[in-house]
Structures are given as C-alpha cells and as structure tokens.
Task: inverse folding
C-alpha cells in the first residue's frame, strides 16, 4: 500500500479536497498580509491528520508556501534583517521544536487553541504600539520569536510585527518574512523527523498541502494592490477564532 493510499484510507477524499482548497486560499491570504496561512490551515487540517500532528505537517507544508513567496518576492529581500533574526532565532527555534516533541495531544490542542485566540488581539496590540527595534533589539527579538515558532504554527503575525518595528515594509516585508520562516521550517522538520513526529505518511500529507499553497504567492502578488486589507483580515479573524475554540474543545474533551 502506497503512502497516498494510506492517507486516503484514513481520511475521506472529500476532506483532503477541502484541505487542498483551503490551503490554496490561505496561501493567498498569507501572500497578501504576510501571515495567516499557518493560522487558518490548522482549523481544517486537525480532523484529517490529528491534533498532535498539525504542527509537524504544517512545518513541512509551510516550507513550500514560504519558498514560493521567496521566489515571487526575491528581488525585494532585506538580507541584513534575515541575518539578525536568525542569529539567535534559529537555535531557539530548534529548542522550541524539541519541546513540542515532548507534548501529548491534549497539550498540543490546548496550546494551539490558546495561540489562535490570542493571535487576534496580539496582532491589534502590536499594530497600535509604536515601538522600534534597533539592530541588537532585533537579534534579541529573534530569539523569542524563534522559540515560539519552533513549537507552534501561525506565528507569522509576530514576525511581521517585529520586522515592521525594524523598519521593513511593503514587498520587502513579505520577502524577508518568507525566507526567515522557510529556513526555520527546514530545521523544525529535521527535529520532528528525528523524534518520529513526522513519519512517511505525514510527510506525504505535508508535501501535498505544501504543493497546494505554492501558486497562492503568485496570485497574491497580482492582487496585492487590488483587495482592501481589512477584507481578508476580517475573514481570517473569524476563521481563526472559530478554530481556536475548536482546538480548546478538543483539549477539554
């Protein structure tokens, strides 16, 4: 039996179709706002792969999603900010990913649910606070972000806010966020694979979902100046809030 047959046998084909469609739509949201794909996808992914497997599968899928944004926005990359964020952020990400491997499904569901719900007011607070990061502050902030990112999905809202506070805006913001997230994602996948949290069937799932997200970055680049930001942000917040409540319900049960 192939890995694809295994996946279809354990989750109805219609569920995978829904995941594929949501993955594509969520990648467009991510390309427009710089974040959102990792917040929306877990809502529909959890019933298909299981709560405990959401973060490992998302880590692999988001490498493709962020990789496509790197290609689409390559010429806008801000390399000095990439280096600062990864200096301490990368080792902290490895530590966070290892910590995730020690959690059981109930803790995973609770943490994801709390993070999804907290992401909405967090985004608004970070947007309103007029703070600025100098180079040393950016390095230190990268460590904090890296640890959270290692153990969680949908942390792009934090990275986007940190980069904006460091003076990165526009297409450069999307590009820089994408390559930092992609590099951290590679290390997360390596950790999850080493500790048996990303087996062959889940790897296939991550690859399929990642492939569905790749075209979204190029669609987003064309739509970037056409769709009002508040429209897709509003839709995303409703989905994320619903998903957060759902994960907490799974943890309570």
Result:
């Amino acid at each position: 039996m192939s890995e694809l047959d295994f996946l279809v046998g354990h989750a109805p084909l219609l569920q995978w179709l829904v995941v594929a469609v949501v993955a594509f739509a969520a990648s467009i949201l991510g390309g427009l706002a710089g974040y959102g794909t990792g917040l929306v996808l877990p809502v529909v992914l959890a019933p298909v792969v299981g709560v405990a497997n959401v973060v490992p599968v998302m880590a692999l899928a988001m490498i493709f999603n962020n990789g496509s944004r790197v290609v689409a926005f390559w010429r806008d990359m801000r390399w000095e900010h990439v280096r600062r964020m990864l200096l301490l952020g990368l080792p902290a990400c490895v530590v966070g990913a290892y910590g995730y491997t020690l959690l059981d499904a109930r803790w995973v569901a609770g943490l994801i649910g709390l993070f999804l719900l907290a992401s909405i007011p967090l985004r608004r607070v970070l947007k309103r606070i007029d703070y600025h990061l100098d180079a040393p502050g950016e390095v230190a902030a990268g460590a904090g972000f890296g640890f959270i990112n290692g153990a969680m999905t949908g942390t792009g809202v934090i990275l986007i806010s940190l980069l904006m506070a460091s003076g990165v805006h526009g297409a450069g913001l999307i590009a820089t966020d994408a390559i930092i997230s992609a590099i951290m994602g590679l290390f997360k996948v390596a950790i999850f694979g080493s500790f048996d949290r990303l087996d062959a069937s889940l790897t296939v799932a991550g690859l399929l979902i990642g492939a569905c997200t790749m075209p979204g970055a190029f669609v987003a680049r064309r739509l970037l100046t056409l769709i009002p930001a508040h429209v897709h942000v509003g839709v995303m917040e409703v989905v994320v809030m619903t998903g957060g409540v759902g994960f907490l319900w799974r943890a309570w049960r």
About this structure: The first helix runs from residue 3 to 10. The mean pLDDT is 80. The radius of gyration is 17 Å.
